[in-house]
Design goal:
Layout (H helix, E strand, L loop, with lengths): L1 E4 L8 H10 L4 E4 L6 H17 L3 E5 L2 H6 L4 E4 L6 H8 L4 E5 L3 H5 L8 E4 L10 H14 L6 E4 L7 H6 L4 E4 L1 H4 L4 H24 L1
Helix pairs in contact: 1-2, 1-9
């Protein structure tokens, strides 16, 4: 499972980033509205939504629940300290995707009983919430012990070479941004990441089938 988070600081426009990821078979796009006005986000979504629908790709927004509702996006990914997951679910409805960033066992435990679709953990990004691979492995094991079957996504400063260690640590997918946005060929690099993730997905399915 590969999530692409748009990068407003990249040389390519966000619109071009999304279209190139879609061309590579990417089916999960998260728009980061940092340094964008609500009107700019609306204009962007209007441009890329048809392509996302054609490719049957999820298109969600970071944090801005009310804006996501207004422009009928597929869901939100909530940073720590932003909206409560329960508010996002009530605002967006049962069909929306709601992801929540976590960095501690207590934050994970607080999600029990809530209608959340996945959790996001940060291994490398600078800041107090960076966990490292070992920290992510510990949280993934905690979720296993608590029988919490929420998909686990690693996000923040991830490159292609980080995928295998993070998946081995217990993640179900990764989110990539800068490493793809600044690649010489976004489509080729996305295909490369998708191919590696597919191997893990196939191995997991084989375990289930045994």
């Amino acid at each position: 499972m590969l999530q692409y988070i748009t990068d407003n600081a990249a040389k390519r426009s966000v619109e071009d980033q999304i279209k190139e990821v879609l061309a590579a078979g990417g089916n999960w796009i998260t728009i980061d509205p940092a340094r964008m006005s609500d009107e700019e986000v609306k204009a962007l979504v209007e441009k890329v939504m048809p392509a996302c629908l054609e490719k049957q790709a999820f298109l969600i927004l970071k944090d801005k629940v009310e804006l996501a509702k207004e422009i009928n996006m597929g869901g939100v990914q909530l940073s720590q300290g932003s909206e409560f997951p329960s508010h996002a679910r009530m605002a967006l409805g049962a069909a929306a995707v709601v992801g929540v960033e976590v960095s501690t066992k207590d934050q994970i435990a607080a999600l029990q009983g809530l209608d959340v679709d996945y959790v996001v953990m940060t291994p490398y990004k600078n800041g107090e919430n960076a966990l490292g691979v070992d920290g992510i492995k510990e949280l993934c094991q905690y979720m296993e012990d608590k029988q919490m079957e929420l998909p686990r996504v690693a996000a923040g400063g991830i490159t292609y070479d980080d995928i295998a260690p993070l998946m081995d640590a217990g993640c179900n997918g990764v989110a990539m941004s800068e490493a793809l946005a600044n690649a010489a060929d976004i489509t080729t690099e996305t295909e490369k990441a998708n191919a590696l993730l597919k191997k893990y997905e196939e191995a997991e399915q084989a375990k289930i089938n045994d």
